[in-house]
Amino acid sequence: MRTSKNKHSPDEDQAGQWLGPTRLMDLGDPRLRMRAASLVQLCHSDREKALAVYGFVKRLTYLRSFKMGPRTARAVLDTGSGDGADKATLMIALLRLAGMPARLRVVLMRGEIMRGLVDNLETISRPFVETWVDGRWLRTDTFIFDAAYTASARQALREANASWGYGVHVESPMLWTALDSTLMSPLPLESDPMVIEDMGCFHDADDYMASPGFRARHTVFVRYLRWNLLVPGMRRAADRIRRWSGPGSRVPRVRPR
C-alpha cells in the first residue's frame, strides 16, 4: 500500500487542528448544535461521547443520493440517510461540536469490495472517521452501513462463499467500541489486499477533493455524473440486501475470486 503526501501530516498534527468548522460542517448551525448537545448531555467521558455520536450516525439508513457535490452535515441530518461520505461529514461535525477532534481519512480501495451493490468499479474511495479519544486517534468505517444492511450483507457473503462484497467483509464487525480502531476488514490497512493507497487525512470531502491525490485521478463533475448514473441500481440492490430473507433467495450473486 502506498501513502500519498498531502498538506496534513498525521505524524505532526496537533489534535486541536481538527476541531473547527468548514463549509460542509457549519458548527454554528442551531439544529446541528442541538443534536450534538442532546446526544452527549449525559456522557461522562470522551469515549461515551464518541459512542453516542457514532451510534446515532450508524443508525441512519445507508442510501446513495443524486448529487453533484458533497452534502453538508445539516443536509445529511435533515435527510436522515446518506452514503459513506455523507455520514462521515455528519459524524465529524457532531464530534467536533462535542469538543472532540475528528477528521476524515480516505483510503483508495479495489472496486470489487462493492460487488453485488455496484459492479464493475475499478476503485472506490472509502471514508474513515478518526476521533481523538484518550490521547490517541481511533479509526472506524463501520458507521457507513446501518446494522440491518450489515447483518444481511454478511450473511449473503457467507451464502455466496465470498470474503468481500456489498461494501463489507464477511467478518465485518457490527459495532465500534471506541476502545480501539475497528474496521470493516479484519486486516489492518497496511496488509489488506483490498487497499490500494492511503490518501491521507482531511477535514471533509471538500478538503479531499481539493487535494493533489484526488485531482490526479478525478474531475469532480464527471465523477459525480458517473455516480449518479449508478444511483438507481445501487438503491435497488441495497434494498434487496436489507430485505433479504436468507438462504434460497436471489441476492447472493457475488462471485469469489
Structure description:
It contains 8 helices and 9 strands. It is α/β, with parallel strands linked by helices and 257 residues long. It has a single domain (2-242), classed as C8orf32 fold. The strands form 3 sheets. It has a 5-stranded mixed beta sheet with strand order 1-9-4-5-6. Strands 2-3 form a two-stranded parallel ribbon. A hairpin with a 2-residue loop joins strand 7 (164-165) and strand 8 (168-169). The longest helix is centred in the last third of the chain and has 23 residues, at 220-242. The chain starts with a strand and ends in a 15-residue tail after the last helix. The relative contact order is 0.18.
In the CATH scheme, the class would be Alpha Beta
- Let me know the average pLDDT: 90
Number of helical segments?
A: 8
**Alpha-carbon distance between the two ends:** 20 Å
Low-confidence stretches: none
Main sheet: strand order: 1-9-4-5-6
Radius of gyration: 17 Å
The name CATH uses for the topology is C8orf32 fold
Largest sheet: 5 strands, mixed
How big a fraction of the residues is strand? 15-25%
Please name the defining characteristics of this protein.
C8orf32 fold, two-stranded parallel sheet, 8 helices, alpha/beta, 257 residues, globular
Quick structural overview:
The chain is of the alpha/beta class and 257 residues long.
